[in-house]
Specification:
The protein is about 55% helix and about 5% strand. With about 325 residues, it is mainly alpha-helical. Strand 1 and strand 2 form a beta hairpin. Helix 2 (about 65-95) packs antiparallel against helix 3, helix 3 packs antiparallel against helix 7 (about 230-245) and helix 4 (about 160-185) crosses helix 7 (about 230-245).
Length: about 325
């Protein structure tokens, strides 16, 4: 379906570290004030709340059972209904800011047979809560069992855990790019990733509305810590981050309004362009693999023409 044109942000630039000339000091400022604040720090705080208040003690997982996975799945479901569902209610049901800052003027699809239950929101909720929340619970329970039985290396310093928590964002940049490029290779795209990409016009529940095969890849980030030291909290943080952070980035809104005169960064224009054009921006702006491998789209008309030229060239080969 042709895009119903909405809000187009200004073209984006690479993070300062990857500009020419490279600006490391400016990169530190960008990382703290643009990347960490406010969303990334919110995900860390949310993961800490989930781990310390709403997760059973590690000893429970020394002998892993289906009920342990079930408890984590129930916790994940409640978390996502509150956080993702809250965003959906505010932006797409209450329509608190109308279409202001919305990437597309049209709303989410109803009565469309391409979606499970013929409804985009119900489709997205089903795949997110059942497959996404379930596989995340299974992976977290496996990691807890390995930590409980001291089978994998574990950090024991608060400062080391804090540093590794920040490193997760960079590790995820590489992890996401690699598995996302794999998902765009036929026949895997048709088997799995096409389910996510039928959401050209996205909403908060779109974030991890994926085929189970894609969830198996996307949510596998904690298994990095089978070989490098981590902690049970970092395992929880990885999965909370992967489950929740895509909801604002897929919300369909570039900025969220607070009152009449204030707004703050909401959606991810970089990834929204991927949903719009499919063959650009496979990774994350934090680690610009797309710039290095020729698939970067900054939202400008010049980048759009370059993309069309590249597609014409590939079609001629």
């Amino acid at each position: 379906m042709q895009r119903a044109k909405g809000y187009d942000p200004e073209p984006m630039d690479l993070p300062p570290l990857f500009q020419s000339p490279s600006r490391p000091v400016a990169m530190l400022r960008w990382f703290v004030t643009r990347f960490l604040w406010p969303q990334s720090l919110t995900w860390i705080a949310l993961a800490a709340l989930v781990y310390h208040v709403f997760t059973p003690g590690l000893g429970r997982f020394a002998s892993l059972g289906a009920d342990d996975v079930g408890i984590l799945w129930l916790r994940n479901t409640i978390l996502m209904v509150i956080v993702i569902g809250g965003q959906h209610w505010w932006l797409h049901i209450r329509k608190a800011q109308g279409t202001q800052f919305k990437y597309e003027e049209r709303w989410l699809a109803k009565n469309r047979k391409s979606f499970t239950f013929d409804n985009q929101t119900r489709d997205n909720m089903f795949w997110t809560l059942v497959s996404g929340g379930g596989i995340a619970a299974l992976y977290e329970a496996i990691m807890f069992r390995l930590y409980a039985t001291e089978s994998i290396p574990q950090l024991d310093s608060v400062w080391a855990i804090a540093a590794m928590t920040l490193a997760v964002f960079w590790i995820e940049g590489l992890h996401f790019y690699l598995n996302h490029r794999l998902l765009h290779v036929d026949p895997i795209y048709g088997w799995a990733h096409a389910l996510h990409h039928r959401n050209a016009n996205t909403g908060p529940w779109t974030g991890i509305s994926m085929h189970p095969l894609e969830h198996l890849l996307y949510l596998s980030l904690p298994f990095v810590f089978l070989v490098i030291p981590g902690s049970p909290f970092i395992a929880t943080f990885c999965l909370v981050y992967l489950m929740i952070s895509p909801s604002p980035s897929h919300s369909g809104f570039d900025r969220f309004k607070i009152g009449q005169d204030r707004d703050f960064h909401g959606g991810d224009h970089f990834h929204n362009l991927h949903h719009r054009y499919f063959e650009v921006n496979y990774g994350m702006l934090l680690l610009p693999f797309d710039k290095w491998f020729g698939t970067f789209h900054d939202g400008s008309q010049e980048a759009h023409e370059e993309m069309k030229d590249r597609k014409r060239h590939e079609a001629d080969l």
